[in-house]
């Protein structure tokens, strides 16, 4: 059993929006040069303090980009918190050991150039591979050493998260996909997190740009492919159109953007501490606090998407033979 130590609370942004950095990855989409990435990070830092960024060890090149950006801006480094992830390769799950975990985590710390990692969010591709609790324990050991400040999970359902908490793993956050289109976490996970003191960090609030009107049609990317599959799950283009119109009407009443309204819906859910919105090449600065939702607003929005994505959190994505699983890349971490 691991001891819960006294630590400063997890830093979250005043706007409720964490800036996601998957878009900066070499494998995500075209158009992000190093200079453009630095300019986007500079703009985000100027807009909010503290600035909270989300990345991962498997987002090719991103930890290094953020680390280099921070190294060149020592005057603001203390006002930036970087959340990363530990995503062991699918092919390594059966043989993973303490050294594997340590090597990947220390590599993230070195790439980011920080004394300690603010938040490491644990992902595990296949829960039938039984070493995931042991891997979480090895992460907790690194937290006790001071290499990690906070531990979180990503894409764990309620049962898996409960298993870790009951094993004494000090999980403080749960990153899951949550939007007006994908309400799987509302089937019990968000309530469970509130009861257990775990902060929900929601990604996908804008569905890859499908729930945003910034600059017209979203640019093609792996992210957009993923969210188009979600749209198909809940009823297709007709449902998406209804959701967009309802968000646009709500945003207009508040003098805000459709993206602001989509994020406000997510932030309105119990247990949600922040929404993760990708860095924008168009300079979009989303702020969910611009829109205050009434219960009738929520009901009208949800009525536009009566269908639901099948199963629990990340359940359809865990089917590697299904359409959601087939677009995943499972072995991007360490060479074998």
What does this structure look like?
This protein has one domain: Alpha-Beta Barrel (TIM Barrel). Helices cover 37% and strands 14% of the residues. The chain is built from 11 helices and 8 strands. It has an 8-stranded parallel β-barrel with strand order 1-2-3-4-5-6-7-8, surrounded by 6 helices. Helix 3 packs across helix 4. The radius of gyration is 19 Å and the shape is globular.
Write the layout of secondary structure elements.
Blueprint: E1 17-20, H1 34-47, E2 51-54, H2 62-71, E3 80-86, H3 98-112, E4 117-122, H4 132-145, E5 148-154, H5 158-166, E6 171-177, H6 189-196, E7 199-203, H7 222-234, H8 237-254, H9 258-267, E8 272-278, H10 295-303, H11 323-326
Parallel strand pairs: 1-2, 1-8, 2-3, 3-4, 4-5, 5-6, 6-7, 7-8
Helix pairs in contact: 2-3, 3-4, 8-9, 8-10
CATH-defined architecture:
Alpha-Beta Barrel
Structural class: alpha/beta
Mean pLDDT: 92
Number of helices: 11
CA-atom Rg in angstroms:
19 Å
The total beta strand count reads 8
Instruction: Please name the CATH topology.
Output: TIM Barrel
Tell me the number of structural domains.
1
The largest pleated sheet is described as:
8 strands, parallel, barrel
Question: What is the CATH domain class?
Answer: Alpha Beta
Low-confidence stretches: none
The name of the CATH superfamily reads NADP-dependent oxidoreductase domain
Global geometry: globular
- N- to C-terminal separation? 32 Å
Kindly estimate the percentage of residues that lie in beta strands according to DSSP: 5-15%
The helix fraction, in percent, is 25-40%
Major sheet: order of its strands? 1-2-3-4-5-6-7-8
SSE order, one letter for each helix or strand: EHEHEHEHEHEHEHHHEHH
């Amino acid at each position: 059993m691991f001891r819960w130590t006294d630590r400063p609370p997890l830093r979250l942004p005043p706007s409720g929006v964490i800036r996601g950095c998957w878009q900066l990855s070499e494998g995500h989409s075209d158009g992000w040069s190093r200079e453009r990435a630095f300019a986007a990070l500079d703009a985000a830092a100027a807009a909010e303090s503290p600035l909270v960024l989300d990345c991962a060890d498997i987002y090719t090149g991103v930890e290094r980009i953020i680390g280099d950006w921070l190294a060149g801006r020592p005057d603001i480094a203390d006002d930036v918190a970087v959340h990363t992830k530990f995503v062991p390769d699918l092919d390594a799950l059966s043989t993973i050991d303490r050294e594997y975990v340590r090597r990947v985590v220390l590599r993230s710390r070195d790439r980011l150039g920080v004394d300690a990692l603010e938040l490491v969010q644990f992902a595990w591709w296949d829960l039938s591979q039984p070493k995931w609790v042991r891997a979480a324990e090895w992460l907790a050991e690194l937290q006790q050493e001071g290499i990690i400040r906070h531990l979180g999970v990503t894409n764990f359902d309620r049962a898996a998260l409960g298993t870790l908490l009951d094993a004494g793993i000090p999980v403080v956050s749960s990153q899951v996909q949550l939007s007006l289109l994908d309400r799987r976490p509302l089937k019990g996970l968000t309530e469970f997190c509130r009861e257990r003191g775990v902060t929900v960090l929601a990604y996908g609030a804008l569905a890859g740009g499908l729930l945003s009107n910034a600059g017209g049609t979203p640019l093609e990317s792996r992210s957009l492919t993923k969210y188009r599959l979600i749209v198909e799950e809940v009823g297709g283009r007709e449902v998406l159109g209804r959701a967009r119109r309802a968000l646009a009407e709500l945003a207009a009443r508040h003098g805000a953007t459709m993206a602001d309204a989509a994020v406000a819906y997510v932030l309105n859910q119990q247990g949600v501490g922040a929404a993760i919105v990708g860095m924008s090449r168009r300079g979009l600065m989303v702020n969910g606090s611009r829109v205050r939702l009434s219960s009738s607003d929520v009901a009208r929005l949800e009525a536009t998407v009566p269908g639901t994505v099948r199963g629990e959190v990340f359940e359809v994505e865990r089917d590697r033979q299904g359409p959601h699983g087939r677009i995943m890349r499972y072995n991007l971490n360490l060479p074998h």
